[in-house]
Every structure is written in C-alpha cells, then in structure tokens.
Amino acid sequence: MAAKDTRLSLMLCSIFLIIGLFAARFGLGVEYQWVSAFFIVIMALPTIIVLATQMRLKGLFTFLSIFTLSIVVEAASIISGLPYGNFSYSDNLGYKLLGLVPWTVGFAFTPILFGSYAIAQRLAKNAPAIVFLTATLNLLVDLVLDPAAVYSGFWFWAEPGIYYGVPVINFVGWAFTSVIYAGIIILFLNKAILDLKLIQPLLLILSFWSGYTLLAGLMIPFTLSAILLFVYWFFTRRGL
Fold this sequence. Notes:
Strand order of the largest sheet: 1-4
Number of domains: 1
Helix content: over 70%
Number of helices: 7
Shape: globular
Oligomer: single chain
Structural class: mainly alpha
Largest sheet: 2 strands, antiparallel
Distance between the termini: 10 Å
C-alpha cells in the first residue's frame, strides 16, 4: 500500500471509529434508521466498485447472487429458526422485505464476506482451505457484530444466549452459511485472486464497531474487533 493510500485508510478508519463512538453515545433508534441504512450502503459501495472493476459482470453477478441469497437465508431463519435461531429484526435498519428482513442486510453482509475471502486467498493453498478460512474469519467478525447489534436493538433472539444475548446456534449458522457463500465465490469467479482493496470496507466496519463496543462496554467484542482491525490493516499495509 502506498503512503498516500495508507494515510487515507487510517483517516477513514479513524472517522468511522469516531462515528461508532457517537452511535454508542446517542443511540441508533428507529428515528435514525435512514442514517443506519446510509452508512451500511456506503460501506458496501467499495466492494461493489472493486468487484465490478476487476471482474466486470461476473463480479456483479456474484455480488448480487450472494446479496439475494443472504436475504433469503435470513428470512428462512426468521420463519423456521434455521440456520441462525429464532430471531427478529427491529425497525431500526429500515424497510423490511415481506415484513421480515431489512433491505439493507445484503449490503451489510457482503463486504464482510468478500473481505474475509480476499484475506483467506492469500493465506490458504487450495479451495477447501480458502473456504474454511473464509468461514473462520467471517465467524470472528460475527463475534463482534452480533453482540453489538443486539445491544443497539437491531435484532434480538426469542431465546437469548450466554454470549451477550446471542445463542450458539447463530454462530454455527454463520460458519455453515459462510462455507456455502465462499464456495459460490470460487465457483462463479473461477478461483480468481480478488483485489486486496476488498479488505478496506471490512476495515471500516471493524472501525465503526470498535468505537461502538468500546463505549458500550462490550469488552470481549471490542478486544476482538481491535485485534482483527490491527491484523487486517497490517495485511493491506504489507500488500500480502
């Protein structure tokens, strides 16, 4: 990463960390749902741009496929309890498709997946290892995201679990679906090495939730988020 890009990355991460602090201090209630939706889409735009630039129509098709499937899977879990458990969304994330899943959910998930995949490609030697590592990295991010989202009132489970109100079945479901989604990326993009710039949206997401979890007093998610943020930024800095 060039010095100019490094400075820009640090500046953006700092801004999003501060925004996270403000969000924890003043809340993310339904009256601010348009703000939440705006930032979710903004954080996903770099992923869309990088995929469209590098992989053209194949990149956009892959993004849209996972975007759509992730919403379908979320709806299935709300209805049936699988794969994430029995949970419901509040109105804080905007309009809910079919009264079940906020339209922003696909935008929130895809940057995490593609960022994790871009890292996994540079650490793993073959397709099964890439899939496994992508799922593992996704799960680590979810250990940050879900407790913060429950605390903020974005969603909640009918039977809360011991990890900040999140049940174990949710993390099992995240790991399982991440394996499926990573497999789709490999299938659709023919094992192409994705641009390391896909990690930048993930850095912004982790920066935001680092600030949020710190001020909210969610210390385990904050510690994990800070560690992931440092490690992922190191990857972009070294250009591995």
